[in-house]
Write a structure and sequence with these properties.
The chain has about 120 residues and is mostly beta strands. The chain has no helices and eleven strands.
């Protein structure tokens, strides 16, 4: 079973940046669409961004458009989420998820999930 590991979370001041990584160790991500999701305390999990297996198609939630950028490096078997101009409302646990041969989607339709990485935006 595909195992995903997120990294790169932490504490950052408002306006700062973080880059999250999503890596797989035993399987290639070449055929997987990858999504990033987040869940804040007391709130439902929401889709943040996704990228198709080729990298040719991406999508973003309105709340992060223009601030977040998703990318992938298939040679490194890793997908990234560059987060700039972070706001306190971006505070959440961020998860990456994978689905094989699926269209890029911000809906909760993915098959494999990582354990999450905490992002805290606070002064």
């Amino acid at each position: 079973q595909l195992q995903l590991v997120e990294s790169g979370g932490g504490l950052v001041q408002p306006g700062g940046s973080l880059r999250l990584s999503c890596a797989a160790s035993e399987f290639t991500l070449d055929y997987y669409t990858i999504g990033w999701f987040r869940q804040a305390p007391g709130r439902e999990r929401e889709g943040v961004s996704c990228i198709s297996s080729s990298g040719g198609s991406t999508n973003y939630a309105d709340s992060v458009k223009g601030r977040f950028t998703i990318s992938r490096d298939n040679a490194k078997n890793t997908v990234y989420l560059q987060m700039n101009s972070l706001k306190p409302e971006d505070t959440a646990v961020y998860y990456c998820a994978a689905a094989m041969f699926r269209l890029c989607s911000l809906l909760n339709e993915y098959d494999s999930w990582g354990q999450g990485t905490q992002v805290t935006v606070s002064s």
